[in-house]
């Protein structure tokens, strides 16, 4: 594998958690928007509204799609969460615990709120009627309570990111302070659970985009040299090797083992028989 291929594989590996965060945040917003379509269960006509809502095939199909979208969002969020925990450093355990608890409670809440419609669609002995509408009202209340608990768990994750961004500077300041603002709103659970999933979805999208941009910057900073970059040759000035004979150089052995003749200006030594040679010109 060449250097360019290695950099490309690494960059793609770092980009995927950011993409997962963007998709998970978008799905979370879509799920919350579909939740707003559920009937009002607080008024005197709640049973009538619930029966009319779930008697519509389109509403039941949307409820089933909402459950599937939440499952996909949860899986993608966990993939994104691992990368977010790496950025948190010594607070990674808080990010992981808060994020995992949020995902589990979110799945439980959304499945509870939509299981009535799923059951009506797939069980012939369970019709939409005033008697069964009471079960739907109960499950919708369970969904809201589960959403409140899920957002409190998300606040733990967001507070950890805020501390990392402000104290350790491991993340941008705006990401930390926005996490702090969403976390504070999450703590007012019973009154803001209808809004906080939307805010969390927007924050997750922003964090995912930040991961993608940082990954691209790292990739650009580690690109290999282009094809026009000169490479050093096998030997250059100052390289070691057999000395070449030339003016002023002493005789040395040739590659074949024979003695090279002395260059001009070199001093002559005694002849093999002990007789001094002629002086050098």
Description:
The protein has 281 residues and is mostly helical. Helix content is 67%, strand content 0%. The protein has helices at residues 3-35, 46-54, 57-88, 92-122, 130-168, 173-187, 189-192, 196-221. The longest helix is centred in the middle third of the chain and has 39 residues, at 130-168.
Oligomer: single chain
Structural class: mainly alpha
Low-confidence spans: pLDDT under 50, at least 5 residues?
A: 1-11, 225-233, 235-250, 254-258, 263-276
Largest sheet: none
Query: Mean of the pLDDT scores?
Result: 81
Order of helices and strands: HHHHHHHH
Structure annotation, total helices? 8
Write the layout of secondary structure elements.
Layout: H1 3-35, H2 46-54, H3 57-88, H4 92-122, H5 130-168, H6 173-187, H7 189-192, H8 196-221
Give a quick set of tags describing it.
single chain; about 280 residues; 8 helices
Structure described in brief:
This protein is mainly alpha-helical and 281 residues long. The protein has helices at 3-35, 46-54, 57-88, 92-122, 130-168, 173-187, 189-192, 196-221.
């Amino acid at each position: 594998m060449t250097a360019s291929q290695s950099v490309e594989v690494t960059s793609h590996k770092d980009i995927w958690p950011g993409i997962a965060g963007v998709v998970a945040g978008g799905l979370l917003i879509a799920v919350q928007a579909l939740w707003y379509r559920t009937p009002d269960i607080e008024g005197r006509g709640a049973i009538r509204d619930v029966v009319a809502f779930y008697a519509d095939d389109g509403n039941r199909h949307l409820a089933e799609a909402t459950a599937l979208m939440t499952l996909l969002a949860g899986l993608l969020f966990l993939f994104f969460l691992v990368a977010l925990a790496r950025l948190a450093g010594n607070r990674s355990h808080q990010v992981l615990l808060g994020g995992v608890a949020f995902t589990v409670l979110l799945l439980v809440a959304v499945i509870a709120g939509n299981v009535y419609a799923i059951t009506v669609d797939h069980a012939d002995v369970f019709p939409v009627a005033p008697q069964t509408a009471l079960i739907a009202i109960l499950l919708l209340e369970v969904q809201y309570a589960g959403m409140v608990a899920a957002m409190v768990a998300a606040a733990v994750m967001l507070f950890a990111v805020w501390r990392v961004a402000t104290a350790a500077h491991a993340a941008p300041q705006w990401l930390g302070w926005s996490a702090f603002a969403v976390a504070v709103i999450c703590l007012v659970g019973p009154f803001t659970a209808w809004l906080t999933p939307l805010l969390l979805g927007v924050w997750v999208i922003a964090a995912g985009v930040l991961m993608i941009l940082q990954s691209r910057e790292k990739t650009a900073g580690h690109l290999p040299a282009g094809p026009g970059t000169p490479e050093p040759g096998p030997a250059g000035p100052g390289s070691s090797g057999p000395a070449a004979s030339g003016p002023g150089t002493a005789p040395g052995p040739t590659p074949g083992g024979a003695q090279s003749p002395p260059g001009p200006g070199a001093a002559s030594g005694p002849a093999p028989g002990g007789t001094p040679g002629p002086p050098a010109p």
